[in-house]
Amino acid sequence: MVRVSVVGAKGRMGSHVVDAVKGAPDTELALTLDAGDDLAAITPDNTDVAVEFTVPSVSLGNVLVLVAQGVDVVVGTTGWTAEKLDKVREALAAAPRKDQAVFIAPNFAISAVLADHFATVAARYFESAEVIELHHPTKVDAPSGTAFHTAQGIAAARKAAGLGPVPDATETDGGSRGQVVDGIHVHAVRLRGLNAHEEILFGNAGEQLTIRADSFDRTSFMPGVLLAVRKLAEGGHAGLTVGLDHFLDL
Ligand SMILES: NC(=O)C1=CN([C@@H]2O[C@H](COP(=O)(O)OP(=O)(O)OC[C@H]3O[C@@H](n4cnc5c(N)ncnc54)[C@H](O)[C@@H]3O)[C@@H](O)[C@H]2O)C=CC1
Ligand SMILES: O=C(O)C1=N[C@H](C(=O)O)C[C@H](O)C1
């Protein structure tokens, strides 16, 4: 049995992870921690993998503490910048165990991971590309970590294909054109009734491709979380890995 501790266990995602870990035949729940609890309680003596779903402002600190304690970590919290990822790599280089692993996924739902992947495939064939993410109004960050990641992937694919900037004649913008991530416009909608949704729009003269992923329920993230937990528990993934696509045969 893989012993799993959950950090952020009282949250929307953390509570689903607790249920998923209890329900899976090969995992058992170790510790459940939330704000105010001492992370020092999570050690290799009681935990094989810690799962972290908290808030962007505290996630890096939590991961650094867990790494220093010799625990592998699966992270679903958003807000990861290149600088923060570098701090995790530095911590892993100084970690107690040589084979220690941290896995971070912007999104654990297969629909979203595939949409993200298909977007990187499509990106080089289209002059225009924009990303729209739509979420529940209790989400604290915008744009979503997934949309940020999708935009970065589109931008990298366009660059590799030698495409220039997306066409845009806008001269005045009070914010309606959204946030620009590596040259790709990202728009965030917050609407009661929604959960997590993303639409990626590609355009050429006279044609459009739309890739859309809809996560209607948080249970959609759980197979991905358990896959990541199993991958880290079996070993062979030392260091930092970002994105569930690494564990899928895409
Ligand atoms: N990667 C993915 O597939 C998904 C990622 N997310 C991300 O996961 C994160 C959490 O989302 P939700 O569960 O909806 O938020 P939430 O607000 O429902 O839960 C966050 C939990 O973290 C706890 N917390 C806050 N500070 C803490 C600390 N220092 N130590 C331990 N626990 C602490 C809070 O008390 C709360 O229980 C967000 O960044 C969200 O964007 C959400 C859904 C899917
Ligand atoms: O806060 C959420 O709900 C979600 N957060 C992640 C993100 O920001 O991409 C993943 C998913 O979109 C749900």
TrEMBL record:
<keyword id="KW-0457">Lysine biosynthesis</keyword>
<keyword id="KW-0521">NADP</keyword>
<dbReference type="GO" id="GO:0009089">
    <property type="term" value="P:lysine biosynthetic process via diaminopimelate"/>
</dbReference>
<dbReference type="GO" id="GO:0016726">
    <property type="term" value="F:oxidoreductase activity, acting on CH or CH2 groups, NAD or NADP as acceptor"/>
</dbReference>
<dbReference type="Pfam" id="PF05173">
    <property type="entry name" value="DapB_C"/>
</dbReference>
<keyword id="KW-0520">NAD</keyword>
<dbReference type="InterPro" id="IPR023940">
    <property type="entry name" value="DHDPR_bac"/>
</dbReference>
<feature type="active site" description="Proton donor">
    <location>
        <position position="139"/>
    </location>
</feature>
<comment type="pathway">
    <text>Amino-acid biosynthesis; L-lysine biosynthesis via DAP pathway; (S)-tetrahydrodipicolinate from L-aspartate: step 4/4.</text>
</comment>
<feature type="binding site">
    <location>
        <begin position="76"/>
        <end position="78"/>
    </location>
    <ligand>
        <name>NAD(+)</name>
    </ligand>
</feature>
<dbReference type="InterPro" id="IPR000846">
    <property type="entry name" value="DapB_N"/>
</dbReference>
<keyword id="KW-0220">Diaminopimelate biosynthesis</keyword>
<keyword id="KW-0028">Amino-acid biosynthesis</keyword>
<comment type="function">
    <text>Catalyzes the conversion of 4-hydroxy-tetrahydrodipicolinate (HTPA) to tetrahydrodipicolinate.</text>
</comment>
<comment type="similarity">
    <text>Belongs to the DapB family.</text>
</comment>
<keyword id="KW-0560">Oxidoreductase</keyword>
<keyword id="KW-0963">Cytoplasm</keyword>
<feature type="binding site">
    <location>
        <position position="136"/>
    </location>
    <ligand>
        <name>(S)-2,3,4,5-tetrahydrodipicolinate</name>
    </ligand>
</feature>
<feature type="binding site">
    <location>
        <begin position="8"/>
        <end position="13"/>
    </location>
    <ligand>
        <name>NAD(+)</name>
    </ligand>
</feature>
<dbReference type="InterPro" id="IPR022664">
    <property type="entry name" value="DapB_N_CS"/>
</dbReference>
<feature type="domain" description="Dihydrodipicolinate reductase C-terminal">
    <location>
        <begin position="113"/>
        <end position="247"/>
    </location>
</feature>
<feature type="binding site">
    <location>
        <position position="37"/>
    </location>
    <ligand>
        <name>NAD(+)</name>
    </ligand>
</feature>
<protein>
    <recommendedName>
        <fullName>4-hydroxy-tetrahydrodipicolinate reductase</fullName>
        <ecNumber>1.17.1.8</ecNumber>
    </recommendedName>
</protein>
<dbReference type="Pfam" id="PF01113">
    <property type="entry name" value="DapB_N"/>
</dbReference>
<dbReference type="GO" id="GO:0019877">
    <property type="term" value="P:diaminopimelate biosynthetic process"/>
</dbReference>
<dbReference type="InterPro" id="IPR022663">
    <property type="entry name" value="DapB_C"/>
</dbReference>
<dbReference type="InterPro" id="IPR036291">
    <property type="entry name" value="NAD(P)-bd_dom_sf"/>
</dbReference>
<dbReference type="GO" id="GO:0051287">
    <property type="term" value="F:NAD binding"/>
</dbReference>
<feature type="domain" description="Dihydrodipicolinate reductase N-terminal">
    <location>
        <begin position="2"/>
        <end position="108"/>
    </location>
</feature>
<feature type="binding site">
    <location>
        <begin position="145"/>
        <end position="146"/>
    </location>
    <ligand>
        <name>(S)-2,3,4,5-tetrahydrodipicolinate</name>
    </ligand>
</feature>
<dbReference type="GO" id="GO:0005829">
    <property type="term" value="C:cytosol"/>
</dbReference>
<dbReference type="GO" id="GO:0008839">
    <property type="term" value="F:4-hydroxy-tetrahydrodipicolinate reductase"/>
</dbReference>
<feature type="active site" description="Proton donor/acceptor">
    <location>
        <position position="135"/>
    </location>
</feature>
<comment type="subunit">
    <text>Homotetramer.</text>
</comment>
<feature type="binding site">
    <location>
        <begin position="105"/>
        <end position="108"/>
    </location>
    <ligand>
        <name>NAD(+)</name>
    </ligand>
</feature>
<dbReference type="GO" id="GO:0050661">
    <property type="term" value="F:NADP binding"/>
</dbReference>
